[in-house]
Amino acid sequence: MGSIECGKEAAKQFTFADGYRNLNHGSFGTYPAPIRQVLRKFQDEAEAVPDKYIRYDSPKYLDESREAVAKYLNAPTSTCVFVANATTGLNTVLRSLVFKPEDVIIYFATIYGACEKTVEYIKETTPAKSHKIAYEYPVSDDYLCSSFEEAVKQIRAEGLNPKIAIFDTVVSMPGVRMPTTCSSCIDGAHGIGHIPLELSALDPDFFFSNCHKWLHVPRGCAVFYAPERNQHLIRTTLPTSWGFVEKAGKTAPSPLPPNAKSPYVALFEYTATTDNAPYLCVPAALQWRKGLTWNGKQGEEAVMGYGLWVAQEGAKLIAKSLGTEVLDNDQGTLTKCMLQNIRLPLSYDKLTGGDAANATKIAQWIAKVQIDDYNTFVAVYFYAGSWWVRVSGQVYLTLEDFEYGAKALHEICQRVEKGEWKV
């Protein structure tokens, strides 16, 4: 395959509807047509001879994908398996750990909503406690790190045990870069394919990341990493399946072919009947990315470099058009990712009369009208007393796409001020 220039040329590789501007890559990701062909090849193979494929061929393909993703992350292949998504990754960790009454789960105020609900469920069903580190962006990386250190000291001073801490690589809402100097349990939902990651150097206790968001792999596919020192802690997949072995050593005979793989790898090889074709597309996606070029760079440097550049410049363009600003701290670290946040020029007091429910209604109206009337979408949310939009950079976007988004948002804000959201 020849080289593909990021921007308009790369856009031709994707299958968007005519005129659609996908400024919200971060929520669900997407993948190019060449990877769709690989996906369907595996699916066709599965339907041609189901038993041969599922019992004998799929595990071999899965090992090839594990090896490819492990090499990409600079991690041992023995530490990497696949799950459907990052939320499943966190559930796998928290539902495997055994909690005592003194154990505390530490997490940050901007944790992904489904992950916070998972923490609440664990508190409901186990003796675990939780500690949320409260703050409101923009804050510095140093502030977050010191706040975490203070939280650990406070928990220990209360005679409790900080069992596990959940960190992000890139926060979802607001979409900002987070420091990863601490490495207990890393929710890298927006990590792989987005920012450089060296797991052997970072050495987290657990790590999981959606390949279907930024690595151009079909949904749903996430890599799940556990170093060998912690693999014994992961007792089950979700759902529990044939790889589970009781601590007493007793287990029901498996109808699946035997293998000599580690208990950890074998645990994730069969997790009930699912379509694991997305997992098998990782090598093809990595190969496709190698052909992308930009500004004299190729492969991952081009993908990450262009994505960051178009996100930052596009966000500045929208903010200038709206007469507002991009969310960042004084150190400029929040915007070092392909997600950017722009404040909308709308007055909370004027529009809602102080009713927070109306703030949600307005955000929901803006989200829907983008699709219905403007053939585009950016994530809309109410945060810190203002409405914000989160845009994404990607290899298929150009500044023209952001100009279109800026014009649409300007018109939509005018419509909000006229009260159309009330209808």
Automatic annotation (TrEMBL):
Residues 61-232 form the Aminotransferase class V domain. InterPro entries: Aminotrans_V_dom (IPR000192), PyrdxlP-dep_Trfase (IPR015424), PyrdxlP-dep_Trfase_major (IPR015421). Keywords: Pyridoxal phosphate. This is Aminotransferase class V domain-containing protein. It comes from Hortaea werneckii EXF-2000.
